[in-house]
Amino acid sequence: MPGKPPPLAEHTINEKAREFLYTVGEAITEWATIDERLFLIFTDVLRTDQHLAAIIYYRTNTLGGRLALLDELIRAICPKPSRESGAHASEVERHWTARKKEMVNLLATRNHLAHSPASPHATFDSDSDPTNITVTDVWWASYVSRTEKMRGAAPKKDIKINDVKDHLQKVHQLWMSLHVFRDELSKLPR
After folding, report:
1. Which SS3 state, helix, strand or coil, does residue 150 take?
2. Domain membership flag for residue 15
3. Helix, strand, or coil (residue 84)
4. Contact in structure between 48 and 130 (CB atoms under 8 Å)
5. pLDDT for 46-68, tens place per residue?
6. CA 84 distance to own-chain centroid
7. What is the mean pLDDT of residues 165-189?
8. 125-174 pLDDT, tens per residue?
9. pLDDT tens digit sequence for 55-106
10. How far apart are CA 134 and CA 156, in angstroms?
């Protein structure tokens, strides 16, 4: 008969906490690089200097609002399809639509990480003696608070360390995609 698993060491629990919280902080602050890349695209679209563009861009307080503003401007400068039936959006506009969709999806995770609590979670093993409980696993997760759940919205899954690392990788890829998009945008005749 196998024995009980050994209890987790306190240093293991603390390491998991540090790794999770550090990675969440990195994921959230990495969005500043996305915001800066969007600002540069915004400046290019307006064909103005960065000082004037900053006054307009940063007047909008949320990244979602800035994205909506930039989306409207990009669509205004993209080549329009001919009036023929079956005409399609330009390649630049299709690329932008894909990047915007990607950002909207990733922003949901970013907002969850930035605005939801995070805490340790654990699994326990106990034999028939309820006073003899052993912690067998501990992990950290960002979760929807009990009070937010009162809204009755569809439940969101907890975000664990591997989810945060995956999100961070996708944000890095998004940054590169926006870099490529900015180059494509610069080739539009206006």
Report:
1. coil
2. yes
3. coil
4. no
5. 999 999 999 999 999 999 999 99
6. 38
7. 95
8. 766 666 777 777 778 899 888 888 888 877 788 999 999 999 999 999 99
9. 999 999 999 999 999 999 999 999 887 766 667 788 999 999 999 999 999 9
10. 29
Q: Which residues pair with 160 in a beta bridge?
A: 141
Distances (CA, A) of 111 to 28, 29, 60, 130, 166: 8, 12, 17, 39, 15
Domain that holds residue 23: 10-79+88-115+162-186
Does residue 128 fall inside a structural domain?
A: no
156 within some domain: no
CB 142 within 8 A of CB 159: yes
Compute the 3-state secondary structure of the chain and give helix, strand, coil in percent, each to the nearest 5: 60, 10, 30
Buried b (16+ CB within 10 A) or exposed e, 89-116: eeebbebbeebbebbeebbebbebbeeb
In a domain, 49, yes or no: yes
Give the chain's domain count.
1
